[in-house]
Protein: TFIIB-type domain-containing protein
Amino acid sequence: MARCPDCGGEVKYKAPFMVCMDCGLSFRRDEFEKMEKKIKQELKTAVGLSEEEKQREDREKKRSYYRWLMKREDED
Ligand SMILES: [Zn+2]
Structure:
């Protein structure tokens, strides 16, 4: 079953449009498929990034802390 890219509601095919039963959004079938693909990709990217970003940020924080520590020791 197709899902509305906007609200996630049920989408029915009413030639020549796909119509969302929840919010009434309507679009052509090819547009819908394009949108669906794009949204799936964006979701994947968002999920993948957030976890990676978090770990990267953690490492960056530790690194800059050590750098700051070393610098202070140098100065003393
Ligand atoms: Zn909708």
